Amino acid sequence: MKKSNLKTIIIILMATILSMLLLTACSTPALSADFNEEEVKLLSRDIVSLLNTQDSEGLRAIFTEQMKAAITDDVFVQIYAAIEGGGTFEVIENITVVGSSDKSTGEEFATAVVTAKYEKQTFTYTITFNKQMQLAGLYYR
To answer: Residue 15 in contact with residue 138, Cβ under 8 Å?
Structure first.
């Protein structure tokens, strides 16, 4: 297995685990008062737009340092190919915002689960922001 493919698989696996932990809690975690839900929703819409226009530099501009290291040009190519397979973007159907925190550091996050309809399929994006509204996590299925 190529090193880049292994790295991509690891990133997707970590994002999946984080998403599952966030979304399988008994109740929806409250969003920290440090976040504005409407701002999270607006920036999430922007993220989907940047993905649809394949604007890697625009995405990198709001990435955390960890995301900058993890999402390489090769990873972007794979993401864009998957999204293109869905056909033409039509509409964002729903955005749900929840709060979360890293149990080891106590750092709080806002996570938006965005349902986006495309011509051939629907994607669910899980988009996580830190308090500085930097993109700290990005997962799609």
So the answer is: yes
Residues in CB range of 118: below 8 A, 6 or more apart: 83, 86, 87, 88, 89, 90
Q: What is the pLDDT of residue 26?
A: 46
- Amino acid sitting at position 97: V
Domain ranges for the chain: 3-140
Whole-number Å distance between alpha carbons of 126 and 105: 21
Residue-wise pLDDT for 4-46, tens only, equals 665 666 666 455 555 555 554 445 678 888 899 999 999 999 9
Query: 85: buried, middle or exposed (CB in 10 Å: 19+, 13-18, 0-12)?
Result: exposed
Q: 84-89 long-range contacts, Cβ below 8 Å, gap at least 24?
A: 85/120, 85/121, 86/118, 86/119, 86/120, 86/121, 86/122, 86/123, 87/118, 87/119, 87/120, 87/121, 88/118, 88/119, 89/48, 89/52, 89/116, 89/117, 89/118, 89/119
Secondary-structure class of domain 3-140 per CATH: alpha beta
Range in 1-10, 87-96, 119-128 the model is least confident about: 1-10
